[in-house]
Input
Amino acid sequence: AAVSAGAQAQTYPGNKPVSIVVPFTAGGPTDRVARDLAEAMRKQIPGSNFVVENAAGAGGTIGATKVAKAAPDGHTVLLHHIGMAATPALYRKLGYKTLEDFEFLGMINDVPMTLIGKPQLPANTYRDFENYIRANAGKLNIAHAGLGSASHICGLLWQSNLQSKDAMTTIPFGGTAPAMTALIGGQVDVMCDQTTNTTSQIEGGRVKAFAVTTAKPLSTHPVLKYYPSLQEMGMKNFDLTIWHGLYAPKGTPAAITKTLNDALKKALKDPEFIKKNESLGALVVTDKRSDPAEHKKFVAAEMIKIKAAVDAAGKYAD
Ligand code: MLT
Output
């Protein structure tokens, strides 16, 4: 087996597809990052064939479990976000152990989130929006992409800071692409989603935007600079950024994970990939989190941070 792994590593990946599994539906923010990254990775390894495969459901845990159990041959990798750190705090039974069942291949980008509402919402500033939410406690709903998704985590933290009398009804979807369609159509009232998905909808006037989730406003972004941060609106310490990373099943040969990490690091320096991210308010990782060991350390620290935040927000957890 060692010989074949070694031989395989020499020709890896060849033209055999490398499936980048996205644990949410197509067209959403995680899918967006994956498609842009697949294009950048293909450029780094001539003849390679990085393809995106959507495996949605259960807040991203179905897709993550699928990769944890996949053959460790370098032809199935997972592109996932903060949910890798959040799900252990939210699921009693999980099909994977974040720190044990994956090889960490490096981090990709940091993406802010925006608090947005359906176009019919009778509010234009964050203050009006917050007052409207309070005045209609228990009557409104908030969409997300399942327990442990970024949109769920954001909604949880925001509502616990809101301390509104009743939590909003939460409406789960297979991803925030279908959730966005429902919001634009007025079927749901509110959502917290990543700027990679919301920027074009805000710019197009199809949804209302009220605030960003980063500590500071995105004051240099042509579309997002008009919105305050939740911290500015009085939610002290509210500072939520969604990070994305790449993972392979545990036991994937080191020569293969090195090939993938090398290609990722080059992709992170690809001007087109950087520009695509920046146009959507996202920032490509430029620090040492692109190293597998630092990636793993970062996720381990995030797991502790998120567990504390979720425990504190407890009563709003689904
Ligand atoms: C999430 O809310 O976790 C994801 O952004 C959903 C998605 O990528 O569709």
About this structure: The chain has a mean pLDDT of 95. The CA atoms of residues 46 and 298 lie 31 Å apart. The first strand starts at residue 18 and ends at 22.
